[in-house]
Write a structure and sequence with these properties.
- The protein is an alpha/beta fold.
- The protein has helices spanning 25-36, 48-61, 77-84, 97-104, 122-129, 132-137, 145-154, 192-203, 218-221, 231-262, 276-280, 292-295, and strands at residues 43-47, 67-70, 89-94, 113-115, 138-142, 163-168, 173-175, 180-182, 208-215, 267-270, 287-290, 312-323, 326-330, 347-350, 355-356, 366-370, 382-386, 399-403, 409-412.
- It has 2 domains: 49-292, TIM Barrel (Alpha-Beta Barrel), CATH 3.20.20; 312-416, Lyase, Ornithine Decarboxylase, Chain A, domain 1 (Beta Barrel), CATH 2.40.37.
- The protein is 29% helix and 22% strand.
- The protein binds pyridoxal-5'-phosphate (PLP).
- Pyridoxal-5'-phosphate binds next to strand 11 and helix 12.
Length: 422
């Protein structure tokens, strides 16, 4: 499995945002090495020029719609604040209710936190229901009256401020009478009539206010349409995504029209890093979500419409040389979630010419590497890797070393602040 090319993407076409700064990979690693030279790996670093350029490119691709930041893909408060200061970004999408409260509470808390998923965390629901300010800032996600029942069971409507509610609509492509399902298995609410019925269930109960609709098209946003060396898969993915986008444009519009008859909506959310242009083209959508494109992890290398800079990387130390053709680094098994496969493995990117071995992959405490890059490596040197996904990297480190404004400056990840949400 050769490492993917790390060639920098070409500058963005002219648009509202300035073109990203193009930095050759050698310069990137020279910068990372110089800024972190005094630190012992394992360590994770974020190249700020790349991160900022990625943020600008996401905003450009959103075509004027505000972009809500998917916190799961960042998991570092400092970087959330940094991207929220970039024009074009507004609000966050949280992945756990405990996290949403942690981000929203208090005078300096984030004012607009949309949950991306339903929650069954009774304790956090209770805290939300007993905090007027948090209840005005956090919007929960529901796809069934069951989740409303859970809120009521924790805090009766008479004893809480109204809880802001967004409806999660299934955006998958269903064919052959439902026998073919292309997309994720999340919300059971698919049709406009089902969305309208759920909307009526929300507004018909005390203690809830219906403010939004979300339909996340994972089969477009999260599936690369230029898989390397797989032309037939590329054709199939592109055909599926075109069909799905056309179907969803019709259905999402009908859903929004049906729900708007029941309650005025503040927001209609859709999309992800991989679908910004397409989702922005749907007139029913008022805002987009993106997160992964900020760190530019390996799974996002193979889309036709964009190519993020690899902004987040991690370094592991070489601890031994089993033979002439192999070095072994400490740790390495920072494997991404999802259907298990080679694409979930971390990718060694510097020095060039290193590969994981088939037999051991990325190990729990030791990872052997082979390839032409081995010859230059000695015990104590570092190997730089990219994670396959974005925010999961932050579950392995308590700090991110920010590179690009002088010496590397460490900022805590969620873990570094003692928080583990999922
Ligand atoms: C509900 C929802 N919206 C948006 C996204 C897109 O996030 P990202 O841009 O990090 O891929 C996701 C990702 O899984 C999601 O679950």
């Amino acid at each position: 499995m050769p490492p993917p090319a790390l060639a920098r993407p070409s500058p963005s076409p002219t648009g509202a945002a300035p073109a990203p700064v193009v930095v050759p990979p050698e310069a990137l690693f020279t910068r990372l090495e110089a800024a972190t030279a005094g630190l012992d790996p394992p360590l994770a670093a974020v190249d700020l020029a790349s991160f900022d350029a990625n943020a600008l490119d996401l905003a450009r691709r959103a075509g004027g719609l505000p972009v809500r930041v998917a916190t799961k893909s960042v998991r570092c408060r400092h970087l959330l604040e940094r991207v929220l200061a970039v024009p074009g970004f507004r609000g966050v999408m949280a992945h756990s209710l405990a996290e949403a409260l942690w981000l929203a509470r208090g005078p300096g808390g984030l004012p607009d936190v949309l949950m991306g998923y339903p929650s069954a965390d009774r304790r956090s629901l209770g805290e939300l229901a007993s905090d007027e300010l948090a209840a005005s800032r956090v919007t929960i996600m529901v796809d069934s009256p069951d989740q409303l029942d859970l809120v009521d069971s924790v805090a009766p409507p008479s004893r809480r401020p109204p809880i802001r509610v967004c409806l999660d609509i299934d955006a998958s492509l269903r064919m052959a009478g439902g026998r073919v399902h292309l997309g994720v298995r999340r919300s059971p609410v698919h049709l406009a009539s089902e969305a309208e019925a759920l909307a009526r269930a929300v507004v018909g109960r005390r203690g809830f206010s219906l403010v939004g609709v979300m339909a996340y098209e994972a089969q477009i946003a999260g599936v690369a349409d230029r898989p390397p060396g797989r032309p037939l898969r590329a054709m199939a993915v592109r055909a599926m995504q075109a069909a799905s986008a056309a179907e969803l444009a019709r259905r999402r519009g009908a859903v929004v029209a049906a729900v708007s008859k029941v309650s005025p909506l503040e927001l209609v959310n859709g999309g992800g890093t991989g679908s910004l242009e397409r989702t922005a083209a749907d007139p029913a959508v008022t805002e987009l979500t993106a997160g992964s494109g900020l760190f530019g992890p390996a799974l996002f290398d193979h889309y036709r419409a964009f190519r993020p800079y690899p902004a987040a990387l991690f370094a592991l130390p070489v601890v031994r040389r089993p033979d002439q053709g192999t070095v072994t680094v400490a740790g390495g098994g920072w494997v991404a979630s999802g259907a298990a496969g080679a694409d979930r493995l971390p990718v060694p990117v510097w020095p060039e010419g290193l590969q994981l071995t088939r037999a051991e992959g990325a190990g729990e405490v030791q990872t052997p590497l082979r390839g032409t890059g081995v010859s230059s490596l000695r015990v104590g040197d570092r190997v730089w890797f990219r994670h396959a996904k974005a925010g999961e990297l932050c579950e392995h480190v308590s700090a991110l070393h920010l590179v690009g404004e002088g010496e590397a400056r460490a900022v805590p990840t969620y873990r570094g602040e003692g928080q583990a949400f999922v």
